[in-house]
Every structure is written in C-alpha cells, then in structure tokens.
Amino acid sequence: MIVEVGHYALVLALTLALVQSVVPIWGTRVGDPRLMAVAGPVAWGQFLFVSIAFAALTWAHVVSDFSVANVFENSHSQKPMIYKISGVWGNHEGSMLLWVSILSLFGAMVAWFGRNLPKSLYAAVLGVQAWVATAFYLFVLLTSNPFARLLRAPMEGRDLNPILQDPGLAIHPPLLYLGYVGFSIAFSFAVAALIEGRIDAAWARWVRPWTLAAWVFLTLGIAMGSYWAYYELGWGGWWFWDPVENASLMPWLAGTALLHSAIVMEKRDALKVWTILLAILTFSLSLLGTFLVRSGVLTSVHAFATDPARGVFILGILVVFVGGSLTIFAARAGTLTKGGLFAPISREGALVFNNLFLTAACAAVFIGTLYPLLLEATTGGKISVGAPFFEMTFGPLMLPLLLAVPIGPFLAWKRGDLLAVAQRLAVVFVLAIAAILVTWWKTRGGPVLAPLGVGLAMWLTLGALAELAFRIKLFSEPGVALRRAVGLPRSSWGTTLGHLGLGLLLFGVVAESAWKTEHVLVMKPGDTLQVARFELTLADQRDVAGPNYDATVARFVVKENGREVAVLEPAKRTYRTRRMPTTETAIATFDGFSQLYLAMGEPQGGGVAMRVYWKPMVLLIWIGCLVMSLGGAISLTDRRLRIGAPTRARATAAVAAPAE
Predict the structure, then answer these.
(1) Hey, which residues does 335 pair with through a beta bridge?
(2) At CB < 8 A and 24+ separation, what contacts does 423-431 make?
(3) Cβ distance 564 to 537 under 8 Å?
(4) Which residues lie below 8 Å from residue 224, measured CB to CB, with a gap of 6+?
(5) What tens digit of pLDDT does each residue of 80-97 get?
(6) Which SS3 state, helix, strand or coil, does residue 530 take?
(7) What is 433-481 written as a DSSP string?
C-alpha cells in the first residue's frame, strides 16, 4: 500500500507542476497578482508530494519488498542497511526519482528565499522551473516508473551492483545531482528574465547565490566521484577522461564562467549577453550529462540505462529546452544593452579573459566527448578519443587562464594599472621562479615540465595569499591588518580560498603525475618489495566471509628503515548473488598527503597478482577541491548575497524595464 501511495504522490506532483507551469506565467501576462501568487504554495506542494514518493521507495528498499521490480533488481535481504538506503538511487529509476526530488527541493527553496523578488519575476522563475519539472515527472512516470510491481514477488532480490556497494554511493550521486539540478535555477532565472525583459545588475545579484550553491555541490560531487573511483576500481588513477566524467566537467567549467560573468554584470551592469547565454548553456550541459548517462549510447561504469526509448525521451527534453531557450535568447538578444564600458586592462577585462578560456576548454571537452558518438551514429565508424587528446587541447587552454588568475583580483574595476599589479606580485613571481629552479635541481632526470607545473602551482597559491595580504594591508599597515581581516567581506575570503584551492589541486596533479611509481608483479607469502622508501612484505593470505560476499584478503606489513609503520590488507571480493568480483584497495597515507596504494588481482601459481603505487602528494588533488568548495560556501554567507539587490540596482531596473 505504501508503494502505491508513493506512486500516487508522484502523479499528484506532476499535476501540481502542470498548474505551476501555466497559471503563474499567465498571471504575469495579464498582470494578475492572485494568479502569480499561486506559484509559491504549489511549489511547496510539489516538494511535499515528491518527498512522499521518495520516502515510499526508500521504505520498500529498507524492508526488502521484492514485489517492487526496482527493489528486486537492485537489492538483497542480506545487504547492509547503508546500501539498502543508498541503493535507492543506485539504479536508473531510483536515481531519476532523486533527480526530481532535488528539483522540487530547489523549487521550494526559490519559493521561500525568493519572496523579495519582483512578483512577476518570482512567478516567471517558478513557472519555468515547473516546465523542467513537468518534463522529468513525465519521463519518470512514462519510462522509468520506480514503483512498478511484479505479478509474483520473488523470495530474494538480485542484489545491487557490487561496485556500487560502497559509502561513496551515499555521498557522490546526491552531491552531483545537487550541482546538476541546482543549475536549473540559473536557467529558470535566465529564461524568466528574457520573458520579462528584466535583465540588469539586480537580476545578477539574485541569480548569483543559486549559481554559487550549485557550483559548490558540483565541485564536491566531482571530487567525491574522483576519489571513489580512485580507491574502488583499483586502477590507481583519479581521472580517466571517461565520457561520463567529462559530462560532469563540462557544466562545471561553464558554471565557473557563469559565476565570474555574473560578478561583472552585478558590479558593472555589463556582459549581459554572456551571462544569460552561460546560464542557459550550463544547465543545457547538465541535461546533456543526463542524456549520456541514461540513453544507452555509452558503455561506462557510470552509465545506468540501456533502454533506447529512455534515451529518445531525454533527447527530446534536451532539444525542447535547449532549442526553446536559445530561440527566446535570440529573439531578445537585440534588446540587451551593453552596460558599463571598461578598458581591456581591468578587472572586467580579466574576467572576460577568464571566461573565454573556460568556455574554449569546455568546447574542447565537448568535442572530444561527443565527436566519437556522432561519427558512429552518422557513418558507423568507431574511433577512441582518450587522455592524449584532452591533454593536448584542454591543458594548453587552461595554461594562460591559470597564469592570469592571480592578476585579476589586483586589477581595478573599469581601468587597471598592470605595472602596479606587477609590482605587487613581484615577490610571488620570484618565489615561483625559485620553486621551479629548486624542483629542477632536486629532480634532475625527471619529467621536464614538472618543475614548471610546480612553479605555476606556487604562483596560484601565493598569488591568492598575496591578494588577501594586500586587501588587509598586512605589510603596509600591520597594526590594522587584523581589524581589516575581520571586516573583509566574506566573498573576498571565498575568492582567496577558491584560488588557493585551485593551486593546491594543481600541485597535487603535477606531483602525482610526474613522480608516482608503479609496480605490477606476482607475490607469494614472505616476498618483499621495495617501494620508494618503504619495504612491503606479504605476510599471509586468508579467506573471509562477509554479509553478502566472500573475500580473499592479503596482509602486507609496511616497514620504513626497519620499523613497522603500517599494515595493509587489500582484498578481492566475490558477491554471492551476482558472482561479480570487485577489488578492495588498501591505502596508507604518509607525510600528510602522499599515499601507498595496493590493489589485489587474481591468484596466480600460489601467489597473488598485485599493483603497488607510490603517489606523492596525491591527496592535495581532493584537498584542493574541498578548499575551493569551502571558498564557495563562505561566499554564500556574504551579507550582500543574502540581502538581495542593492537599492540603486532596483531603481535602475524600474526605469529600464519598460524600455526593454
């Protein structure tokens, strides 16, 4: 009965979405405040009913109700409770229910936090958001019903994909979807603004917190997915340029450009075309990621669905929303005023430079990801586009961007002084050059570009700290530095942390890529391997029975200078129901950021195949992502983002709106 209640609640949510997609929009057309006021309560009603539906499916998984096809296909009575709950979205149908649940959550949040918006814009934003919701409710109910029943309930389920039976499943998809779906708010604001003809600095102030929140969640989701793949798959890498990985990277790049563009629009009432277009494209790339994962066009560890009908449906959603929004944009683009003028050497100019290279890098990833699919669809030919292509295109495009990152915050708005910036960054430049020379001297004979990468990472991190020091006058007026630091806007702290995190990430990438070591060999009990400064000895092997799997565990004793420093136990598991093997890596962290990484293979001749890696400074990759996300979160608490648009911007908007 609870399952049927969930199904009915989802149908009611669709009904409310249809109401929300029509009535408030019509209210804005006829100027009826009562019709516009419908949007808020209906958005809350949507969230209530979708929450009921999600709770019903979760209950079915928790109690192992195998009469529900989704539970039978993706659960097992002996599965640990954490995987029963996270397994709700560890499949296509459940993950789409999570998608629409988050979509309704964001709609309800706009209904609550957007009450200071102009009534017509408020209604239009929620109306456009309901268009998106309606499309996905129909997709779930017509092609991906998670509540479908089986005529005869089996005694036992088929179990969840063993690769997904990991705590990462509880964290990665929700964070990723909060990012993907969060950009729908920026999309809704953009389309609503085009419909209303209200595109100004106040609009940028309203849209920026939602974009920033989505960016933070997507950053965390990508980082968590990378780390999950790193320790779960046993291949020792943190990024594979898999098409589905790229599908999450593209909206992140576009969203980063959107954030910077919105800043210019808010501060200088400029880059309106850029900002609106980026808001549309960022969510469009999120929809593209959904299509790639669920269309069946890809074979990937990340891909869920293989039903072509679902792919056609999502492709239709993609065409309607991308094509429709771009059509509205084309119709309105001529009415967008240029806004404030600025010199090429200025804060605005630096942000435009930033956006050009971010969008070019996004385009490179887009082409490399989709070209093989288009080629196969049109000619039947198959090609493989892998890491070499992306390293040769994405890397060079990011290089000038990274060089410019520390310079931008030092430039003044409208017209900057490049010579003054060079003077302020002179010490940072000297230290970066010193880092290059020291690295080259310490690692002669190693990768040629590695010292340059270390210098660039030093340039980014010290540049971020130098900008903060300049703002608080740390060296010119040390007596007031603390007081100025306390009074500094939180968005300034967020910018510093964001750029600092980027530098840490780059340093981790360079160190891991340039100086990692790998050993692939067969080891028997008693064998010893020298890895970096450590001695690894295989002490023994044993068989272990888990709740729903059997495993072979190898025990390694790690010594440094004859002293035991760690015991690592990699394992090979076989899940009883699906008879599918998985690799359980064993990882030990040394020096704070470097890791010794062991992955176990198949038994061979009385021994076991092993992959052993030494990965210097690898944790800085994910720590950098966390620092960037922390910067975004701190920026969200800035009072200027919480109080809405300034009075001046509102007044300007009131005058400009009729003309547009």
Answers:
(1) none
(2) 424/466, 424/470, 425/463, 425/466, 427/466, 428/459, 428/462, 428/463, 428/466, 429/459, 431/458, 431/462
(3) no
(4) 168, 171, 172, 175, 176
(5) 999 999 999 999 999 999
(6) strand
(7) HHHHHHHHHHTTTS-TTHHHHHHHHHHHHHHHHHHHHHHTTTTT-GGGH
